[in-house]
Write a structure and sequence with these properties.
alpha+beta; eight-stranded mixed sheet; 24% strand; globular; binds aspartic acid
Length: 323
């Protein structure tokens, strides 16, 4: 995918900010009904998250609740509706982090967990670890009361057709992923702040279409696709390998701390300079400890939505490709 000029968006007094991935724009390919469905899912997630915050709940609880709703929505590349790996399996990655305590939980390559974000959360609550992968993560989730489903649960027709078509077109070329940048994304992420000023971040994804079996992207890697501390909370989306190499999520927080710059300045520098110059494609959402937010991406579009303290909601859904 070609990288485009970045698009910085700023706002303040925000309590919850979410994204639904970056991608190519084919606005005309989105029916009004589909657009409506995206909008409803985003508004529903923000509203449910806000209920938690406004009852003095913790930001990490709001982040988990928001992401669960998006994982359950087949429109996004997370939970139900995730993209297929080259071996025609769905392997899910997710991470969640509490900025106040630096507690973090992550799962990678899970195949049976209905809501990977909740498995990640359970790692914080019920284990001494930060990340579990593969069957160990599936087993941990099961043993800790997380809902387990068959692979068939995740399957949606469009996603299945994507992988079949792609493999036919490329004569089953298993090398394709390294040569082909992402075109069909839809990862979900969320950052939030609670009444006590605590920040949290979370991200959940099926990864990249046609990824190699066993490939782990940036999403579950603390500091790459997901990070939160007392200063800032970040969730990323895009070509994960670049976000890992540049430790993007942590670097945003470090820039703000070490250079005493605003969140929007750090986000702009990251997307417009570091990531774009490296050839990386994607975007991110970030929130500082005062509820100032920045959204930026160097793709044609990014889905995002946010809710302010006063309950007003802003949603951007026009920029997602559906093929
Ligand atoms: N960053 C994710 C990954 O590389 C994909 C995405 O955000 O769409 O796995």
């Amino acid at each position: 995918m070609q990288a485009f000029k970045s698009n910085i968006i700023e706002a303040n007094e925000v309590t919850i900010l979410l994204h639904g991935g970056v991608g190519r724009i084919h606005k005309e390919a989105i029916s009004p009904e589909t657009e409506q469905q995206y909008q409803e899912a985003i508004i529903h997630a923000l509203t449910e998250g806000q209920k938690i915050i406004s009852c003095s709940g913790k930001s990490i609880d709001a982040v988990e609740a928001v992401i669960r709703i998006l994982e359950d929505c087949p429109l996004f590349n997370a939970g139900k509706g995730a993209v297929y790996a080259n071996n025609e399996m769905i392997e899910l990655d997710a991470a969640i982090m509490d900025g106040k305590t630096l507690n973090a939980g992550a799962v990678a390559g899970v195949r049976t967990v209905k809501n990977p974000i909740s498995a990640a959360r359970k790692i914080i609550d019920n284990s001494p670890h930060v990340m579990l992968v593969g069957s160990g993560a599936d087993e941990f989730a099961k043993g800790n009361g997380i809902e387990i489903v068959d692979q068939s649960y995740f399957k949606v027709k469009d996603r299945w057709q994507q992988i079949i078509k792609l493999k036919e077109e490329t004569e089953n070329n298993t090398d394709l992923f390294s040569k082909q940048p992402p075109t069909k994304l839809g990862t979900v992420g969320c950052v939030a702040i609670d009444e006590a000023g605590g920040l949290a971040a979370g991200t959940s994804t099926g990864g990249m279409l046609n990824k190699k079996f066993g490939r782990v992207g940036d999403t579950p890697i603390i500091g790459a696709g997901t990070y939160a501390n007392k200063i800032c909370a970040v969730s990323c989306t895009g070509h994960g390998e670049y976000f890992i190499r540049h430790a993007v999520a942590h670097d945003i927080c470090a820039m703000i701390e070490y250079k005493s710059i605003r969140v929007s300045v750090a986000v702009k520098e990251m997307i417009e300079e570091k990531l774009t110059n490296a050839g990386g494609v994607g975007g991110l959402i970030a929130m500082d400890a005062n509820g100032n937010i920045a959204v930026n991406y160097n793709t044609e579009g990014m889905f995002y939505g946010y809710i302010k303290k006063d309950g007003t909601i802003t949603v951007n859904i026009c920029n997602m490709i559906i093929e």
